[in-house]
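Today's session is about reading a structure prediction critically. Students often jump straight to the picture, but the first step is always the sequence itself: look for stretches that repeat, for charged clusters, for runs of hydrophobic residues. Only then move on to the predicted structure, which in these notes is written as discrete structure tokens rather than atom positions. Here is the chain we will use throughout the hour.
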Amino acid sequence: MSARTEIAAYPLLCRPILVPKPWGGRTLERVFGRALPAGQAIGETWEVSPLSQAMSVVENGPLAGSRLADALGGRQRSAPGREGEWAFPWLIKFLDARDNLSIQVHPKPRPPGQPQPADLKHEAWYVLYADAGAQIFAGLRDGVSERDVAAANGSRALVGLLNAIPVAAGDCVYLPSGMIHALGAGILVAEVQTPSDTTYRMYDWDRVDGSGKPREMHLEQGLANTRFDVRAADLRPRPARAAAGWSAACEPLVRCDAFQMDRIELRGTTEFVPISNRPEALIVLTGGMRIQFAHGGAVEVAAGRTVVSPAGISPMRCSPLDDWAMALRVTVP
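Below is the predicted structure for this chain, in token form.
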């Protein structure tokens, strides 16, 4: 084992990347005490990003200052559909919607047996905060046809073709690539997705920028990538069991080809055994936790932060910083 591999075998914290958006807000200040730039509406924070155009930088331990790709090197398994490439399997974000996000869709899968697009974007939202009456828009209503979507494309009529689904803190929904969707106003979510930033906007609530210009739409691509075989019932595909290797209370939330997400509760010290040869992530939601790893090292992860466990890391011991902690555990299925 090389010295570099030994150095890399510890839990990594990454420097969040803040992304202003016209629909963004400042809920992260209130929920997690996150310091945000004055006067900016922050719509997204990229907590862990393997994308070359916005690569995460490690901020803890011997590899502080390293790009995520360099810190993990070739030790990570490629994402589904990207065999042979280096790829951390997920892009992990927080989304803060002060206003409705655009109605959008991501590239749809190809039929079985055909090569799949590299920019598929399967994603899951875990609701951290929601105003009373908040809702998401996801999936076409029963009976909606391609002709209906084509006629409404680019207009407010498209909203009426989607399921409007009330949500509250603690809800989790899955959005397969190709399902039309929009995050509604007044919601803060943790988002786990495959590492793609390809989005086709089909309606943006008639918003304009400071110059009075609307945002770019992608009507033709959006219609071409809309799936008509997914409905509201596909939003919560709960796995039969939680991923192995966690001895505390663990509730399975969602599973797809790209990831499994479980909600864990930590009320005392417990052993955490990462799945062999797979990267993992813990998104700490409440309370914060201390993770002790090999050679006596430890990292403290505050609520609102995400820690990455590289593939092949040794078993660790986790303890809540207070009496209780809750996190989302993200694994390769």
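Discussion point for the tutorial: Confidence is low (pLDDT under 50) at residues 1-7, 75-86.
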